[in-house]
Write a structure and sequence with these properties.
Shape: globular
Number of domains: 1
Number of helices: 3
Oligomer: single chain
Structural class: alpha+beta
Order of helices and strands: HEHEEEEEEEHEEEE
Radius of gyration: 18 Å
Length: 215
């Protein structure tokens, strides 16, 4: 009886570890990219897993990010990020991934650029939050300091989805600064980690890396 109780306690202690193991740290980005892009990334990335333990993506967030409070937030969760702000790099493994619109994003690496949804009728209700990340093929975005206007950013990001619409990922309100991954009631996989600003301060961010809005 004592042995059975010990075994049951051991099994219960293991359950939270198995359920929560959806993320692991990975070394610095070593893929094909310009030296400027590599220099702009944190030396540690994050590998995010699906509930079935298959790899969803690898993400490296930006470091030394300049923050600038925008005059008009339009309900932004991240009012310190400006449009076209470089936020990092995401890599999709074999099989690729899908963006928040459900569009296929092929295997490979993409820069992540912040964009606040335009406050016009064409974008009402397309996402829970107006803060989005637009993906750009990494070969087409060699300088993180370049600011793209909205039209150019949409054009570049559309190439990532091979469609007339940009490849977008939804941002969520952050719940903490420590790296983690979780699954929402909608089945979205959310990566939570921190970008480091130019003063060394952690800026928590949360990004939907797997999951699409209802069409």
């Amino acid at each position: 009886m004592k042995r059975a109780c010990i075994f049951l306690l051991h099994a219960l202690l293991l359950v939270p570890l198995a359920v929560g193991q959806k993320i692991e740290k990975v070394p610095a980005f070593a893929g094909e990219a310009s030296d400027k892009v590599k220099a702009a990334l944190d030396s540690t990335g994050y590998r995010v897993f699906l509930p079935n333990s298959l790899q969803a993506c690898d993400v490296w967030l930006a470091k030394d990010v300049p923050l600038s409070k925008r005059a008009e937030t339009k309900g932004a969760i991240y009012p310190d990020f400006v449009d076209s702000q470089f936020l990092g790099v995401i890599t999709f493994p074999k099989g690729g991934g899908r963006d928040f619109r459900g569009q296929t994003v092929r295997i490979g690496s993409y820069t992540m650029r912040y964009q606040l949804l335009p406050g016009d009728g064409n974008h009402l209700g397309v996402a829970p939050n107006p803060d989005m990340v637009l993906l750009v093929p990494i070969a087409e975005d060699p300088d993180p300091k370049v600011d793209f206007d909205f039209g150019k950013l949409v054009e570049l990001s559309s190439a990532a989805a091979h469609s007339s619409h940009p490849a977008v990922l939804e941002m969520m309100p952050p719940e903490g600064s420590e790296p983690s991954a979780s699954q929402t009631d909608d089945g979205w996989i959310v990566l939570q980690a921190s970008i480091v600003d130019k003063d060394g301060k952690k800026v928590p961010v949360a990004l939907v890396v797997k999951g699409s809005a209802a069409q």
